[in-house]
């Protein structure tokens, strides 16, 4: 905290260095001071808190989430998404906090935290504050973190027993940033009626986006093939995706619909419906 206060905007926090160092190599950033927090043991690790929620230190490497039995049991969507995060060598060094603070709109972590309604703890010499995921990512490479603050931990609320999940992504090559990705969480009762749903698209705009209309279309309905198809079409119409050298806007719209359908089918474990042509 003292180093950040002393150097202000000239300083950058570094942990794994998998985002900052490439940016410095490209001369897109030129901080005069690097403050290495990788050795702070209290910022590393994953634990279950007394209320059942999961707390993860900001300098915890991606690989720990990929291999953690606690994450596989408590946050299976996070566990399933980790192999999509870059490559094994990068996952060994890259960190949760580094990805979140880098705020690439096609990265998995900001979308996962938004889907899971995570809360970020930011600390400075002025004190501590908690920022919900909805307010953390502000745009391309921009977050709510002030120049004198450090992201120290992320808290994920405990899941109810009836929660289901789906995660789908398309990238040019495995390990590249997503052209489009979809993360979905859905709570259903014993009759298959949706009680709550949350859908997030990433790679489409300047930050991950909640597909609120698509999610709301599921609530109160039995999540069958027809409901999934309707939600997928709503998701497509809900977003105005970007158009760049990686993919056209129209291609991204198609992916949003297809991946939303696949993620919901994955969540409901009804993949056989597509094979039978009932979701065509």
Brief rundown of the structure:
The protein is α+β, with helices and mostly antiparallel strands. The protein contains 13 helices and 13 strands.
Structure description:
This protein has a five-stranded antiparallel β-sheet. It has a four-stranded antiparallel β-sheet with strand order 10-11-12-13. The chain has a two-stranded parallel ribbon with strand order 1-2. The longest helix is centred in the C-terminal third of the chain and has 20 residues. It is built from 13 helices and 13 strands. The chain has two domains: 114 residues, Uridine Diphospho-n-acetylenolpyruvylglucosamine Reductase, domain 3 (2-Layer Sandwich), CATH 3.30.465.10; 113 residues, CO dehydrogenase flavoprotein, C-terminal domain (Enolase-like, domain 1). The termini are far apart. It has 280 residues and is an alpha+beta fold.
Task: Report the major sheet.
Answer: 5 strands, antiparallel
Secondary structure category: alpha+beta
Number of β-strand runs: 13
Count of DSSP-assigned helices = 13
* Large-scale geometry: globular
Distance between the termini: 56 Å
- How many domains? The number is 2
What is the string of SSEs from the N terminus onward? HEHEEEHHHHHHEEHEEEEEEEHHHH
Unreliable parts:
271-280
At CATH level 2, the architecture of the largest domain is 2-Layer Sandwich
- Cα radius of gyration in angstroms: 19 Å
CATH class of the largest domain: Alpha Beta
- Tell me which oligomeric state these chains represent: single chain
Strand order of the largest sheet: 3-4-9-5-6
How much of the sequence lies in strands comes to 25-35%
Helical content stands at 25-40%
Mean pLDDT: 94
CATH topology call of the largest domain: Uridine Diphospho-n-acetylenolpyruvylglucosamine Reductase, domain 3
């Amino acid at each position: 905290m003292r180093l950040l206060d002393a150097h202000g905007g000239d300083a950058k926090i570094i942990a794994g260095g998998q985002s900052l160092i490439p940016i410095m190599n490209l001369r897109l950033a030129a901080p005069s001071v690097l403050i290495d927090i990788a050795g702070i043991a209290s910022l590393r690790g994953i634990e279950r808190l007394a209320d059942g929620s999961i707390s993860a230190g900001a300098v915890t490497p991606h690989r720990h989430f990929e291999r953690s039995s606690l994450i596989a049991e408590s946050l299976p969507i996070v566990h399933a998404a980790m192999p999509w995060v870059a490559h094994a060598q990068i996952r060994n060094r890259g960190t949760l906090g580094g990805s979140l603070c880098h705020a690439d709109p096609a990265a998995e972590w900001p979308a996962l935290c938004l889907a899971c309604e995570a809360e970020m703890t930011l600390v400075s010499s002025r004190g501590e504050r908690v920022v919900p995921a909805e307010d953390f990512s502000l745009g391309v490479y921009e977050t709510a973190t002030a120049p004198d603050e450090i992201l120290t931990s992320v808290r994920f609320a405990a899941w109810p027993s009836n929660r289901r999940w789906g995660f789908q992504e398309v990238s040019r090559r495995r390990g590249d940033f997503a052209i489009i990705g979809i993360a979905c969480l859905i709570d259903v009762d014993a009759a298959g009626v949706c009680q709550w749903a949350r859908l997030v698209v990433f790679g489409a705009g300047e930050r991950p986006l909640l597909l609120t209309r698509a999610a709301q279309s599921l609530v109160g309905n039995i999540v069958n093939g027809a409901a999934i198809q309707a939600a997928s079409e709503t998701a497509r119409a809900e977003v105005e995706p970007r158009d760049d050298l990686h993919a056209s806007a129209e291609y991204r719209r198609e992916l949003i619909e297809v991946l939303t359908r696949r993620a919901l089918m994955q969540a409901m474990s009804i993949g056989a419906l597509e094979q039978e042509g009932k979701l065509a």
